[in-house]
Specification:
Order of helices and strands: HHEHEEEHHHEHHHEHEHHEHEH
CATH superfamily of the largest domain: Alpha/Beta hydrolase fold, catalytic domain
Largest sheet: 9 strands, mixed
CATH class of the largest domain: Alpha Beta
Radius of gyration: 20 Å
Number of domains: 2
Bound molecules: alpha-D-glucopyranuronic acid
Distance between the termini: 39 Å
CATH topology of the largest domain: Rossmann fold
Oligomer: single chain
Number of helices: 14
CATH architecture of the largest domain: 3-Layer(aba) Sandwich
Length: about 425
Amino acid sequence: MFNLKNRYFISARAIGHILVLLGFGLAASTQDFNYDESKVGSHALPELLRNRDGKKIRDSRQWERTRRPEVHSLFATHVYGRMPGRPVAMHFVSVKDDNMALGGRATRKEIDIHFTSDAGGPVLHLVAWLPNAVPKAPVFIGLNFMGNHSVHADTGITVTDTWRSLHPDKEATRALQTERWQVDTLVAHGYGLATAWYQDLEPDRVDGWRTGIRSTLAESLGIRPTEWAALAVWGWGLSRILDWLETEPRADAMRVVATGHSRLGKGALWGAANDTRLAMVVSNESGEGGAAISRRNFGETVTRINTNFPHWFIDAYKVYNGAPERLPVDQHMLLALIAPRPLYVTSAAEDLWADPTGEYLGAWHACSAYSLYGKKGLPSPTPPGVNQPIGATVRYHRRTGKHDVTLYDWQQYIAFADEMFAK
Ligand code: GCU
């Protein structure tokens, strides 16, 4: 069936591939990605539980005192940039509330997170649903791709001025991503949801930093635009959503799940690596620069991602184009920074670009950090078959189908959160 949602995502993803296949102007060539498992070759990963001075890490105390800060700083220096704190003048303005949303089952709140005292400064427009049946609900949070009005059919959701300024045909994406968000299912299971449009923080293009918060907040955050990059900005946004949840009596800020799909999954991982208040993390098909091992030559590569999306990473990361083996980190070490918090990594069987096996191996190799806390992760170095979630505190599934977020995915996240939060 023709579907605008599918068309948008297939085309957005396919454009890069088509340009390469046709040999157009991009610096990368067809050698810059591989879909042939027999050509993957071998690679040695940097050792997670050994300090750079050679000392072996034996317990969680050593990990937290020495190796974790070291790994964190390597990612900050070579990949994502450093993460600033919250702006001093940040404040929350309630825009509108509807306590009879979703047929009376939820309260829908719209909140503007102002980052400066000046009303004309940058704002993150948030929409949240809190289940009316739960006095203090755990909450899933995540940034959305198509505006707050795209996540549910409820016509009461504001089409924000930031979205409208870039998309004059303002209603066109209303309810277009409802499968990706599953608001009703979450509320029926006693969870809240808070989401905001990711480009409120930084427009997703090479020069997006000029109008995004990397410029507008450079002074108040004390960080130059080149010291961090777009993925970090989006991850930082999740922490600001959590800041609001901490002020909301109906939300349980101790049980907040950071989620993100694809580029926003990469951002969510780095955000949660920096903000240990985020109690659980879901990486949905985050692929290269997210959960997937960079040294594994399958799907997207460091060269391709740096070429097509240079604004996602700091300049230092470009040094590793064509040479991921020289990186002092690999992505299992990013996932290890989430430990001992529950982590769910997913792939989709047709999403070869994100390298499902590489995503599984990222999660598998992070499990030794969980072991330091006596937590069980995944049972085997071999990925499971499709639609077979496996693992304990580190969980993984490879869903049938394409690059997307579906009801199946959400059902697994909810079951995982139920178990981990022991509701
Ligand atoms: C592109 C990009 C991926 C990214 C994806 C997305 O395909 O190459 O790295 O995950 O877009 O965000 O949808």
